[in-house]
Each structure stands twice: as C-alpha cells, then as structure tokens.
Specification:
Blueprint lengths: L1 H20 L4 E5 L4 E2 L4 E7 L9 E4 L2 E5 L9 E2 L3 E7 L2 E6 L10 E6 L5 E2 L3 E2 L2 E2 L4 E5 L4 E5 L4 E10 L4 E7 L10 E3 L2 E7 L5 E9 L9 E7 L6 E2 L3 E6 L5 E5 L4 E5 L3 E8 L7 E8 L2 E5 L3 E6 L5 E10 L7 E8 L4 E3 L4 E6 L3 H37 L7 H39 L6 H9 L1
Parallel strand pairs: 2-12, 14-22, 24-32
Antiparallel strand pairs: 1-3, 3-8, 4-5, 4-9, 6-7, 7-8, 9-10, 9-11, 13-15, 15-19, 16-17, 16-20, 18-19, 20-21, 20-22, 23-25, 25-29, 26-27, 26-30, 28-29, 30-31, 30-32
C-alpha cells in the first residue's frame, strides 16, 4: 500500500510540473556575441522551470541539426563538429567546435516539442574574419591627370568579416614619413558579399588636376577591427598642366628688320605649366616650314611648383628669306601650343648707300663733338681771365697786358682746335673700320636723327 501511494504521488508531481511549464518560453543565448574564425562557440538553451525528462532539439537555418537521444547527462552526445551537454535540467548547451566564415550569419534556436512544445528565440552567429589583402587598381603605374582629363582609381580589400573600411591618402613625396600625408574624404564605397560570407569592399576616388598634387603619390589603407591595417602599394600621380599660352617675347615688335647674313636674336616664353615644356622653333618662308634648334633654354619653378620655360635662338637671314615668319611651339606631354604671335622678318641687303649713311652719321657726330669742344674752350678762357684780374677797377696797362696775354693764348687754342678736328676725323674713320656687322642699327638711327 505504501508503494502504491508513493507511485501515485510521483505521478501527481510529474503531472503538476507538466501543467505548470507547458507553453513557457525557452531562452537561447550565446557564450559570446562575436567569435573569431576557427574558435569554438557555445549556444546555451535555458529553461524557465526545471524538468528532468526533456529532450532539446537544435535547429539551424530552419533545419533540425541535432536531436537529443537521451535525457540530460554531463555529456549527451559529441560529433566532429558539435558537442552537446547539459549542466543542469534547466540548461542545455551546444558547442560548435570550429566556427568558420561559412557559419557567419547562421540562425539558431532550440525547442522542446514533446512535453513543453516550446521554442526559444533566434540567435545569429557573428564571425570575425580579418582582411586577407588589399590592392590598388589603376590602368598604369603612373596615374596621369590634366585639366581636361581626370582619373578614377579603385582600391579593393578582400576576405574580411565585417566589411573593411578603406581610407585614401596622398603622400607628399615622403614615403618614410606619414605625418604629412593627407586624407581624402571625397570617396565612393560599396561592398560585395562573397559566397563564403566574406565581404569585399570597393572604394573609388576621382583625381583631378590641382597644383597640390604635383609630386605626390596615392595609396589606400583598410581595416575591419581598427587595429590591424593593410596598406596598398603607392602609385605616382602625374599632374599635367598645359601652359595657358606661349609667345615670342623678343623682339617685341611684330615686324622685325634684319640685314642680310646678320644675326637676330629671338626669345620664346611659356606661361606656368607642369611639367616643364619643350620649346621648338620654326621658320616659315614662302610656305616652307623649317624646324630650328634652340641655342639655349631655361626653366623657372614657381611657388606652386609649376614651371615657366624660356628658349632662345639666333637666326641669320638671306634676301631670299625676306618676310619670313618666326614662331615657337611648347609641349609638356599634356598638349602642344603654338605661340600666339609670329615675328615677321623683313630682310635688307647691305649696299654702298647703306655704308654712306653710316659714314654720314659718324660725320654728324664728329661735327657735333667739335662744336661742343670750341664752346667749352671759350668758357674755359673766360674763367681763366676772371681769375687773373680779380679787381673790377684795374689800370689800362693791365688791360693791355691782359689783351696781349689773350692774344698769346689764341694761337695755342687754334692749334688745339685743329688737332681736335684731325683727331675727330681719324676717330670717325676708325669707328667705321671697327664697326661690326652685329651693330648696324645705332649708326643708322643717328643718321636719321641728324
């Protein structure tokens, strides 16, 4: 009788437990919210009320992954991938032994559908996978941009969970010093999820021609944990600034007078550009164009690192070159510019009349010098006379002596005049004989003045 009563009591208690927890929630939680790849992760299924006869099922992505084959014990079942256990009748554990990137995003829940008919909440597995590599994609190792052409550069980071964050930098020609690197903010980013759940991040930056980019290089960095950074190789930015103009600056007149077989100097100058321009000279005669080599060139760097280029050429012309046009072009890899002005060269032939004009010019100079010499001599004598007779009321005899003294001085003065004239004539001849062919302009100018 006692045994019967005891069995009845146990049955009543079991029925009470069943009725008291039927339909109650089952709570599922994880041992950690984010797990590193190739590390274990434990799912914990908690029951609200203690019950010794429950069998928990584990469901992943809507599919029953594991079923308990027996009631709770310290270790219920183990496989290569999983380990099930229960610490008490109210806590059931499932350990995923080796979490991989393929487990990222899996949805798990636990249930008991025999006695409790209860199902837990869902949990989502989050796996952290470091970025495997980063790469910078350009059509060439040298990114070339100009005022008319911009460049789109792409940076990719692969194999990470979560998605990598890409940052762009300009290096100001100091690859060993990152303190002066400039961060680019105008970027476009997008992500692509791969079949293995890793995320590829694509970032784009448009490079335009600005002077601040001259001599710089471009690179990108990526991280998905703010600790481990991956740095791409750098690529050099070639900024091309076409000069706004190029012109012939010497001679400054549009029409140039030249003499047969005599040298005329020309100068060509560009406005600031980058890199330095290469200047080419041209002679255009009767429709025939000839390239002429420059004598010298010079480059000047401005504060913004743009460069002004100058070039010089010396040319001689024959009569057949009359009305030749001289101009220059400038090329700095961006484009070729032609000078906005051309020097029209009118060639003269040197004849006897030209030499006569030179001689007349020299004679005019000599006559002018002689007149000034006589005038200076007269002034000198007056000053000397004043010093010899300081008193205003002098005796008549003294005036006579003064007159005699002046009479004695006049022959020497006349001799000096004669000698000066002879010297001037000799100087004129000597100037004519020593006049070089490079200086035909000044005598002719003076001849016209007189």
């Amino acid at each position: 009788m006692k045994w019967y009563n005891m069995s009845s009591l146990k049955s009543l208690v079991f029925l009470f437990c069943l009725l008291s927890i039927k339909g109650m929630d089952v709570v599922l939680r994880m041992s950690q919210q984010v797990v590193n790849e190739f590390q274990p992760l434990t799912l914990i299924c908690d029951l609200v009320v203690l019950h010794p006869f429950l069998r928990i099922h584990w469901i992943s992505n809507g599919k029953t992954e594991l079923r308990m084959g027996r009631y709770c014990s310290s270790e219920i079942d183990s496989t290569k991938d999983y380990n099930m256990s229960c610490r008490t009748h109210r806590q059931y554990n499932l350990t995923i032994n080796n979490v991989t990137r393929k487990n990222h995003g899996d949805i798990w829940y636990c249930s008991e559908d025999h006695f409790l008919e209860a199902q837990s909440n869902d949990v989502k597995v989050k796996v952290k996978v470091p970025i495997s590599n980063i790469s910078l994609f350009t059509e060439k190792q040298l990114v070339t941009v100009s005022v008319k052409v911009s460049a789109l550069v792409q940076c990719l980071c692969h194999g990470g969970i979560p998605a990598g964050q890409i940052t762009w930098f300009y290096d100001k020609g100091t690859p060993d010093d990152v303190s002066d690197d400039v961060i680019l903010t105008e970027t476009k980013n997008e992500t692509i999820t791969q079949l293995d759940n890793t995320v590829t991040t694509q970032s784009y930056v448009a490079i335009k021609a600005v002077t601040a980019l001259i001599g710089t290089s471009l690179y990108c960095k990526a991280t998905n944990d703010n600790v481990h950074w991956h740095i791409s190789n750098g690529t050099l930015i070639a900024v091309l600034f076409l000069p706004s103009f190029v012109e012939v600056t010497h001679p400054r007149t549009q029409f140039v007078t030249a003499y047969e077989d005599k040298i005329v100097y020309f100068e060509c100058v560009t406005s600031p550009g980058y890199p330095a321009s290469s200047i080419t000279w041209y002679k255009l005669t009767n429709g025939s164009e000839v390239i002429t080599s420059a004598d010298a060139s010079l480059t000047t760097e401005m504060k913004d690192r743009t460069i002004v280029t100058r070039s010089w050429v010396s040319l001689s012309f024959s009569i057949s070159d009359d009305w030749t046009f001289v101009y220059c072009t400038a090329n700095n890899s961006a484009e070729t510019l032609t000078s906005r002005n051309r020097a029209a060269v009118h060639v003269h032939q040197i004849t006897d009349s030209t030499l006569a004009k030179v001689a007349i010019g020299l004679s005019s100079i000599t006559r002018t010098a002689l007149v000034f010499f006589i005038l200076g001599c007269f002034i000198f004598m007056k000053l000397r006379s004043s010093k010899a007779n300081p008193r205003e009321n002098a005796h008549d005899s003294e005036h006579v002596n003064q007159a005699n003294d002046q009479g004695n001085d006049n022959p020497s003065c006349r001799v000096n005049f004669k000698a000066s004239a002879e010297n001037s004539s000799y100087s004129m001849l000597q100037m004519y004989q020593t006049t070089t062919l490079r200086e035909p302009y000044e005598p002719l100018q003076m001849a016209r003045d007189f």
